[in-house]
């Protein structure tokens, strides 16, 4: 057991420790030297550790490829450099990582791939200094701030095209199942009235908390409701577990699965268990055409072993959009932010990519998973209006 | 009927997960927070086996062996020095779990992997079609529990283990190689973790943070179990049944909270569920 | 005394120096580093609060993040307006809401901790039950957080609040000041006499209970205090960053706190502060350099500390410096410094003003038809016994006769007995359902068969706690001297404890431990003294002196009940002897009557030889 009374020796130890800490602080206080001051430094914030790290590799490859493209084609007028930081698994780590990017590395813009609370943590720091944040998610579309631009789809943009298509196929009875989290709840709350307006019926709706490992009783519930379509809106690892258990359950045969949150990588890992799943997104690696082939080879050159996915695509778009904004507005934070709000560029697939009032407009692809877990493109639909207005205080 | 099968299979899966943890805790007084880490080692061993085209069940055996080897290393380097310091083992095994997760990440990357889908067929139970694989898991759980019970009850190994549980100084005095038996117990516990990890592979997402969400329920079940195998089965039955029934009939979001609440209250009423700790 | 004063001045000097150093750093440091330190200071406050709970009263709180989270949420909920989905749509700008938020969070945390403590701490339950409960609570809290979006902001949490126009540097100084105050308060507390009591609870709950202290209440109150301080830290965090999410409640964050305390050094206050600050800084800088490897390094580091420096880095470093200093001194031929260093620095002094009690012949304990058993094993089978004031009663009997059990039952009213035990100690008569500390406060002091001492307490400190006899010690004053009655001085002198005031009880030789146990029992100035084999392991000479001391106590009106094997010693000192055999009293009389009794010879002496 410890000596419980501080003695002279304790104090000596205390002083020694503080000196060490001080030395360490001063040693690490200096920033990385090689970047020149005229460069435009981009902070990349993503989850490199914890459960969210599944997306890290593909997102980083997109950023890297885009930086190469921007610099080699001189798309931004200045050289882009980047610093990567680990947002960890919680808001506190995100705060630390983000303040390092802003205060220590003095980045001029942030490209982030983190969930809602971590995005907010970072935005709290960034908005004080008018640093633009380019984010994949915007917390189910309801987090908005003047300096924040969402590059991914908001729930109605991603969901409505699938609903339209499957209803047109005559599948009218839907069961909505989601993780007990804001994005699925918002998605389902948009999907249900839309379904009703198109003549469909909701035969059931239920949620499970994040981190659920056994979905047997949920599958039973869904099967007993006899839907045509099971709309499964579960996130990350839980989603993979759910799809595996769904596929292994013989009672689910004949029910069409929709899972717009299933990534291409996890679907590949699922293999035959993913077969038949409908999904929708702005990018699939199987999108046909020479533009996508060029994009894929560009990503492979950046060092990604697997095929690019939605995260790769969006992170690529983010850097490209930032480059076009910097080209027109210079390096000044507020000017870049307002330029980003009027982004109009040609994406790597050759289609138009626009940002209006903080949200993206881009074509949505419908795809269905094949027996090997890859997605086959079924349809390309026009951009959907995000129909969102900023109401949050941030 | 389906509900009954859901309950039964959930209990079976929980038992498989918990068994290795319970052995380590019951015999050694070691709270192994790295249990899910060893499950991860197991499932990744099965992934490698699968990617070499080996059959799934061979992969399960490989998984148990891999986790056992890792367990031996951990026992010799760390756990051996911490017996009789139960609180320290919590902290140390938590550190070990960090290390395991990180090593898996470095070796295999962040992405999802697969172990294949064995027995993806349905079996009819009294007219109700049900996933064959889940039913097989229940049988495996039953075989493990019965086998372990017989081992403890009727063999020399069981006798010496019970002696160590009761009084290790006396056991040492009688010429029992306590340190060897402790190491073996820990290794067996880890092997069971690896085995469980591989078995759950077809139903879970496989990535470096494998099975971490299982840890809370598993611990409550083990604590409820006390030192007896019968307690373990009872603990798994109660928690598994509460989880499934509550999720079925009420809001599933609250079911995990209810499971925790039930376990905590049971432990208050029956503190002897905690008999693993010497007075 | 002089040297102690300089030491004290030195201590505050060093603390002042460190604080001044940090204050200067607030001016010269970069934004990033001062920002990191601001967070680290807040974390350090949480670490101190966990140390009080875990390091001092020994309650491993695996869910300490819960209290931190409640504090933060309280501030967030007080200052924001949300729509029905939990999205923050407006922020109150009156600054009193922040103050109220922090205070409310502390109250809610303390109240909840009080309920949890009452529920979890019990004499019978496992010491680890609290670990299970706190772990469970923090898990449940994270799940339930998203279920009340109106208050919590749901999955996105609450954001955008915080007092306007306060610069990060100001927050740096606010956090530094808060930490300094908390540390000073905590150090004063743990060095006070109450701090001794907390350590006693941690080291040996049972013994503390028999000294007359309500262990469960002490643990619960400390737990509440720890929760309130953690909530204060959480509230401060929320005010500074204007951000609350379920992450603040999580088990991961709770584990982080455990790491700070365990690595820094449990039960040292300063250690956890250093742990929190250094690990936060090292973590931030290293995870920036090696984002993927840092967790690996953290894990390895942590395992190394737990395995090789289990009491934490600060005590380890302190020991090394001490060893270095000693070896330097020795080289210089300074022999004095070789003496073992004591703990506590308290002195035992004689206090002649111990008022003698009036001897009477009235009974103090009446036992009738007492039955007691452990499960199916019946140990006491119908004991009838009356003990009078001012009597020295010896209980003899063969092994397994039930002697120790009888003493245990007398001192603990929670044991399930049949029959009746009554005390006649002033207004105190009841025995049934009275926990040991209540009976101890009646004036019944018990010495256990094998010495039960406190690992981190010196002889003087043990006696100090015994002397207070259940009265709550001062939470800020530190007694430098421990006044004791002449009887205690006699015991100390007789057993060779004189001058060993500052040696730890557990490092003493066996005979000295016995002596300290008797001294502690006598020091509590009891009316009834229950001694279970007090002279085992003592020499003939020491026994004779102890015998004399006991006779003198009896002469002053104390009642002594003694379990003893040595019949010669019994004959020398006892007024009365009862012989216990097979759970019944088979003989009751003067020493002469008993030693000449045929029944006793057969039953007892036969067994012994």
Polypeptide structure, described:
Chain A has helices at 8-28, 56-72, 91-104, 116-128, 155-168, 182-197, 216-224, 236-248, 264-270, 290-301, 310-329, 333-340; strands at 40-46, 80-86, 109-113, 133-135, 148-150, 173-179, 201-208, 229-233, 256-258, 278-281, 344-346, 352-356, 359-361, 364-369, 375-381. Chain A has 394 residues and is an alpha/beta fold. Chain A folds into two domains: 40-153 and 288-362, Rossmann fold (3-Layer(aba) Sandwich); 155-281 and 366-381, Response regulator (Rossmann fold, 3-Layer(aba) Sandwich), CATH 3.40.50.2300. In chain A, strand 1, helix 2 (56-72) and strand 2 form a beta-alpha-beta unit. Residues 1-6 and 26-34 of chain A have low confidence and may be disordered. Helix content of chain B is 72%, strand content 3%. Chain B contains eleven helices and two strands. Chain C has helices at 2-28, 31-56, 65-79, 96-120, 129-145, 149-152, 168-191, 193-203, 205-210, 215-241, 251-264, 270-289, 294-308, 313-331, 403-411, 436-442, 459-468, 486-494, 510-523, 540-555, 567-573, 591-595, 598-608; strands at 80-82, 88-91, 158-159, 243-244, 347-350, 363-374, 377-388, 392-396, 418-423, 444-447, 481-484, 528-532, 559-563, 576-581, 584-589. In chain C, strand 12 (528-532), helix 20 and strand 13 form a beta-alpha-beta unit. Chain C is 56% helix and 13% strand. Chain C contains 23 helices and 15 strands. Chain C has three domains: 34-307, Orthogonal Bundle (ABC transporter involved in vitamin B12 uptake, BtuC), CATH 1.10.3470; 309-339; 363-608, P-loop containing nucleotide triphosphate hydrolases (Rossmann fold). In chain C, the strands form five sheets. Chain C has a six-stranded mixed β-sheet with strand order 10-12-13-8-14-15, with helices on both faces. The B-C interface holds B 78, 81-82, 85-88, 91-92, 94-99, 101-103, 105-106, 216, 219-220, 223, 253-254, 256-257, 260-261, 263-264, 267-268, 271, 274, 277 and C 60, 119-120, 124-129, 132-133, 135-136, 139-140, 143-144, 147, 255, 258-259, 262, 292-293, 295-296, 298-303, 306-307, 310.
């Amino acid at each position: 057991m410890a000596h419980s009374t501080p003695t002279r020796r304790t104090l000596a130890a205390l002083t020694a420790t503080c000196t060490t800490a001080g030395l360490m602080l001063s040693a690490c206080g200096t920033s990385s030297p090689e970047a020149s001051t005229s460069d435009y430094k981009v902070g990349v914030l993503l989850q490199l550790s914890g459960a969210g790290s599944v997306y890290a590799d593909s997102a980083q490859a997109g950023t890297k490829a885009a930086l190469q493209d921007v610099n080699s084609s001189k798309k931004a007028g200045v050289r882009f450099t980047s610093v990567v930081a680990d947002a960890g698994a919680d808001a506190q780590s995100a705060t630390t990582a983000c303040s390092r990017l802003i205060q220590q590395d003095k980045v001029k813009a942030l490209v982030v791939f983190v969930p809602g609370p971590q995005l907010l943590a970072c935005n709290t720091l960034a908005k004080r200094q008018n640093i633009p944040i380019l984010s994949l998610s915007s917390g189910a579309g309801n987090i908005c701030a003047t300096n924040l631009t969402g590059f991914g789809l908001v729930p109605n943009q991603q969901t409505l095209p699938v609903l339209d298509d499957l209803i047109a196929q005559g599948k009218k009875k839907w069961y909505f199942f989601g993780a007990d989290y804001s994005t699925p709840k918002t998605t389902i709350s948009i999907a249900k009235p839309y379904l009703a307006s198109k003549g469909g019926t909701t035969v059931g709706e239920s949620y499970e908390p994040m981190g659920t490992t056994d979905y047997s009783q949920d599958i039973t519930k869904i099967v007993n409701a006899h839907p045509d379509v099971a709309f499964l809106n579960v996130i990350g690892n839980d989603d993979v577990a759910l799809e595996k258990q769904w596929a292994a359950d013989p009672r689910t045969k004949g029910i069409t699965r929709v899972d717009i949150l299933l990534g291409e990588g996890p679907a590949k890992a699922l293999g035959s268990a993913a077969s038949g799943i409908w999904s929708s997104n702005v990018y699939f690696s199987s999108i046909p055409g020479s533009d996508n082939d060029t994009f894929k080879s560009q990503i492979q050159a950046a060092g990604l072993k697997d095929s690019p996915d939605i995260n790769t695509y969006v992170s690529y778009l983010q850097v490209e959009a930032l480059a076009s904004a910097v080209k027109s507005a210079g390096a000044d934070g507020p000017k870049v932010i307002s330029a980003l709000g009027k982004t109009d560029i040609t994406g790597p697939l050759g289609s138009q990519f626009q940002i209006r009032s903080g949200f993206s407009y881009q074509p949505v692809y419908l795809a269905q998973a094949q027996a090997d877990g890859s997605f086959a493109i079924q349809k390309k639909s026009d951009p959907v209006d995000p129909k969102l207005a900023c109401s949050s205080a941030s | 009927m389906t509900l009954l099968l859901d309950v039964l299979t959930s209990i079976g899966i929980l038992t498989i997960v918990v068994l290795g943890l319970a052995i380590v805790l019951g015999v050694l007084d070691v709270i192994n927070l790295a249990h899910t880490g060893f499950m991860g080692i197991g499932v990744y061993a099965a992934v490698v086996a699968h990617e070499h085209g080996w059959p799934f069940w061979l992969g399960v055996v490989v998984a148990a062996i891999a986790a056992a080897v890792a367990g031996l290393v951990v026992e010799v380097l760390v756990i051996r020095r911490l017996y009789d310091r139960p609180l320290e083992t919590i902290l140390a095994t938590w550190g070990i779990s960090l290390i395991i997760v990180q090593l898996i990440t470095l070796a295999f990357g962040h992405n999802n992997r697969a172990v294949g889908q064995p027995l993806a067929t349905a079996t009819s139970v009294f007219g109700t079609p049900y996933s064959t694989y889940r039913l097989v898991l229940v049988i495996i759980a039953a075989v493990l529990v019965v086998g372990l019970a017989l081992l403890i009850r009727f063999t020399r190994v069981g006798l010496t283990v019970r002696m160590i549980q009761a009084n290790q100084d006396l056991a040492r005095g009688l010429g029992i190689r306590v340190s060897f038996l402790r190491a073996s117990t820990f290794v067996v516990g880890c092997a069971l973790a690896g085995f469980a990890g591989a078995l759950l592979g077809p139903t879970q997402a496989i990535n470096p943070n494998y099975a971490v969400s299982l840890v809370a329920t598993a611990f409550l079940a083990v604590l409820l179990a006390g030192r007896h195998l019968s307690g373990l089965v009872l603990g798994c039955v109660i928690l598994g049944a509460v989880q499934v029934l509550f999720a079925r009939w009420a809001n599933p979001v609250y079911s995990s909270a209810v499971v925790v609440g039930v376990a905590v209250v049971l432990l208050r009423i029956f503190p002897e569920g905690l008999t693993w700790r010497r007075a | 005394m002089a040297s102690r004063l300089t030491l004290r001045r030195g201590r505050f000097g060093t603390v002042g120096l460190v604080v001044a150093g940090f204050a200067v750093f607030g001016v010269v440091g970069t934004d990033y580093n001062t920002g990191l330190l601001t967070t680290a200071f807040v974390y350090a406050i949480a670490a101190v609060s966990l140390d009080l709970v875990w390091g001092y009263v020994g309650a491993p709180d695996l869910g300490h993040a819960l209290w931190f989270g409640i504090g933060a949420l309280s501030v967030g909920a007080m200052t924001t307006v949300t729509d029905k989905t939990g999205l923050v749509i407006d922020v109150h700008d009156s600054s009193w809401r922040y103050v109220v938020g922090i205070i409310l969070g502390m109250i809610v945390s303390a109240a909840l901790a009080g309920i949890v403590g009452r529920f979890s701490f019990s004499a019978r339950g496992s010491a680890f039950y609290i670990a299970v409960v706190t772990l469970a609570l923090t898990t449940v809290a994270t799940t339930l957080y998203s279920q009340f979006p109106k208050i919590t902001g749901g999955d996105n949490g609450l954001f955008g609040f915080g007092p306007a126009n306060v610069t990060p540097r100001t927050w740096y100084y606010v956090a530094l000041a808060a930490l300094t105050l908390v540390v000073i308060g905590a150090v004063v507390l743990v060095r006070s006499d109450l701090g001794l009591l907390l350590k006693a609870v941690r080291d040996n709950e049972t013994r503390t209970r028999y000294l007359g202290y309500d262990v469960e209440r002490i643990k619960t109150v400390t737990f509440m205090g720890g929760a309130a301080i953690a909530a204060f830290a959480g509230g401060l965090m929320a005010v500074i960053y204007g951000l609350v999410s379920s992450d603040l409640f999580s088990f991961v964050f709770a584990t982080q706190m455990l790491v700070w305390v365990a690595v820094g050094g449990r039960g040292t206050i300063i250690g956890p502060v250093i742990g929190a600050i250094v690990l936060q800084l090292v973590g931030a800088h290293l995870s920036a350099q090696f984002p993927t490897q840092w967790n690996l390094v953290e894990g390895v580091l942590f395992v190394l500390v737990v395995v090789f420096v289990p009491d934490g880095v600060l005590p380890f470093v302190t020991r090394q410096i001490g060893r270095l200093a000693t070896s330097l001194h020795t080289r210089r031929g300074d022999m004095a410094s070789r003496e073992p260093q004591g703990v506590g620095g308290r002195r035992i002094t004689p206090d002649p003003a111990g008022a003698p009690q009036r001897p009477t012949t009235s009974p103090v304990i009446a036992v009738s038809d007492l039955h007691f058993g452990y499960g199916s094993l019946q140990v006491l089978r119908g004991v009838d016994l009356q003990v009078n004031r001012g009597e020295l009663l010896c209980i003899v009997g063969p092994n397994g006769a039930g002697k120790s059990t009888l003493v245990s039952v007398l001192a603990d009213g929670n044991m399930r007995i049949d029959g009746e035990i009554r005390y006649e100690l002033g207004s105190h008569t009841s025995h049934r359902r009275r926990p040991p500390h209540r009976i101890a406060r009646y004036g019944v002091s018990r010495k256990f068969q094998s010495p039960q001492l406190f690992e981190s307490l010196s002889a003087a400190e043990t006696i100090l706690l015994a002397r207070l006899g259940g009265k709550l010690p001062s939470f800020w004053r530190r007694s430098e001297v421990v006044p004791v009655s002449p009887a205690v001085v006699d015991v100390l002198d007789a057993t060779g404890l004189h001058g060993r005031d500052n040696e730890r009880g557990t490092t003493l030789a066996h005979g000295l431990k016995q002596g300290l146990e008797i001294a502690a029992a006598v020091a509590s100035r009891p009316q009834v003294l229950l001694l279970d084999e007090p002279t085992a392991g003592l020499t003939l000479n020491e026994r004779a002196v102890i015998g004399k001391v006991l006779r003198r106590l009896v002469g002053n009106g104390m009642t002594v009940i003694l379990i003893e094997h040595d019949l010669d010693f019994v004959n020398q000192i006892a007024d009365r002897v009862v012989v216990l055999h097979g759970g019944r009293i088979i003989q009751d009389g003067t020493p002469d009557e008993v030693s000449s009794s045929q029944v006793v010879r057969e039953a007892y002496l036969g067994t012994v030889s």
